[in-house]
Specification:
Arc Repressor Mutant, subunit A; D-Maltodextrin-Binding Protein, domain 2; alpha/beta; 313 residues; 24% strand
């Protein structure tokens, strides 16, 4: 016996008609009739009598009606009890500034929808600082751009990002066109994050491979101040698509770096699975789902998906 059969039986009694009940339930009349017949066969008794004016319960049907109503109420109470006892807890997630600019609000929305009783703590900081906090067990999860292979972390590649040169049109030597190669940027004055930032480390390696010394005239670790400096025309910067999308709205030039080896990989790192709480494990799944949906929907510019199961290092 299934709960849906009880709902079907009660709907027929309420409507006094198989046809009207089927319409209310959104199923075919023949399908509804088959379910009622199956229920009567399981009970080995007739529950309904068909008349010229509709359907009425038999004596057995009247007796069964009360218990069917009681069973459905108990089932609803069970669902409510389960929801009251739904997953709760606390989870701390670290996001670098550029990643936070595109991922933070959608992540908050998804967590509130799926796990409203989980308290989410978001930390926005440089990836190097986030790695330190992860090591110190001050974070459960963090999006990083480099990982320490000596640590026992669970690491999942999330996505790759294309990098862009962003500059004010008034900056002398600001690139034009849709794309540019790294070797053409040797004389361009740049403002970049410090070496503690994962993006800076990525770019240092990329410039070394090209044999070009970048002209970094300033270091600024705050994304907002860095972008204000670019808007003021003091220097250009190199940033991923998330920052580039926002910059394009303010009249800045955004030119993609076309070198195949120039890009940034976002990695979702966490403590080992046996150290994570159920809340943290649930949040990890949500982060992956939200990031992938942002890429698929075009809301994370210049990004491409990676598909790989978590690895413990």
């Amino acid at each position: 016996m299934e709960l849906k059969q009880l709902r079907y039986f009660l709907a027929v009694l309420e409507n006094k008609s198989l046809g009207r009940a089927a319409l209310e339930l959104g199923i075919g009349t023949s399908a509804l009739s088959q379910q009622i017949s199956k229920l009567e066969s399981e009970l080995s008794t007739r529950l309904l009598s068909r008349t010229s004016t509709g359907v009425v319960p038999t004596n057995a049907g009247v007796a069964f009606q009360h218990h069917a109503q009681l069973t459905l109420r108990q089932a609803e109470n069970a669902v409510q009890a389960a929801q009251r006892g739904r997953m709760s807890g606390y989870v701390s997630v670290g996001l670098p500034p550029t990643t936070a600019s595109v991922l933070a609000l959608p992540l908050i929305s998804a967590m509130r929808e799926k796990y409203p009783d989980i308290q989410l703590h978001l930390v926005e900081s440089l990836s190097g600082h986030l790695a330190t906090q992860l090591n110190a067990r001050q974070l459960d999860l963090a999006v990083l751009f480099q990982t320490d292979t000596g640590k026992r972390w669970s690491v999942m590649p999330l996505l790759d990002e294309t990098l862009f040169v962003i500059a004010a049109p008034t900056l002398e030597g600001a690139p034009t066109g849709e794309s540019i190669q790294l070797q053409q940027l040797g004389n361009l004055p740049l403002v970049m994050p410090s070496l503690q930032h994962g993006l800076r480390s990525t770019l240092v390696s990329a410039f070394e491979r090209t044999g070009i010394e970048p002209n970094i005239i300033m270091e600024i670790d705050g994304l907002a101040v860095l972008m204000d400096t670019v808007r003021s025309g003091y220097a250009a910067t190199i940033q991923p698509g998330a920052a580039a999308a926002r910059s394009g709205e303010s009249g800045l030039r955004v030119v993609q770096i076309s070198d195949a080896h120039v890009g940034r990989r976002n990695l979702l790192a966490s403590l080992s699975d046996d150290e994570l709480s159920p809340a943290a494990l649930a949040a990890r799944v949500v982060i992956v789902d939200v990031a992938r949906e942002l890429v698929r929907s075009g809301c994370w510019p210049g990004s491409s998906l990676l598909s790989e199961a978590p690895k413990t290092r």
